[in-house]
Amino acid sequence: MAHFAELDSNNKVLRVVVVDNENVSADMAIDGEQWCANNIPEDPSIPYVDGSYPGVAWKQTSYNHNFRKRFAGPGGHFIDDGGDGYFTTIKTHDNWVLNTTDGAYYPPIATPSVTTYVEDGKTFEYRIHWEQDNNRYIATKVEGTPETGYWRLNTTNGYENSEYENYPSVSADLLTQLVWDPNTSTWS
Questions:
Q1: What's this model's pTM, rounded to 2 decimal places?
Q2: H or E stretch including 36?
Q3: Containing H/E element for 175?
Q4: Which of 14, 49, 108, 121 is buried most deeply by CB count within 10 Å?
């Protein structure tokens, strides 16, 4: 099956549809886009803009990321780069930056390079989150709540053999929020 994204006049993805391969001669072939334009009806759940249906074009997208970098999703965009073009993720916040290598938007500060910590001879993964209000990454050593319990990922034997460790309660140091310092590449 082939997948096609319907775009508006700003190249924003409105929806993604599945098309039988018999209607597409090859990946990214114009005949597939034309087939969609001629055969896929307007989506009644998509509101009209200034009295007109907003869908104006179709572009093929790859579910397996074999072309156009990302699988299209509603709210993402198609970037016409003068080549085959590519799809992006949704730009979550105005200050997020597009990585043209993979088509994803990321926070304005590079992802922390230190993602694990060692405790009692075991290696664990930090629970890292982006805090938009303060434009920073924060981390804790465990995830959870008193009601649900806490957990952390033990990666001592590598990620392929990693395991979650559950705790009904934890000490305060495991819940302390650490802040990433991109200048020193450390958590404090």
A1: 0.77
A2: helix 30-39
A3: helix 172-175
A4: 14
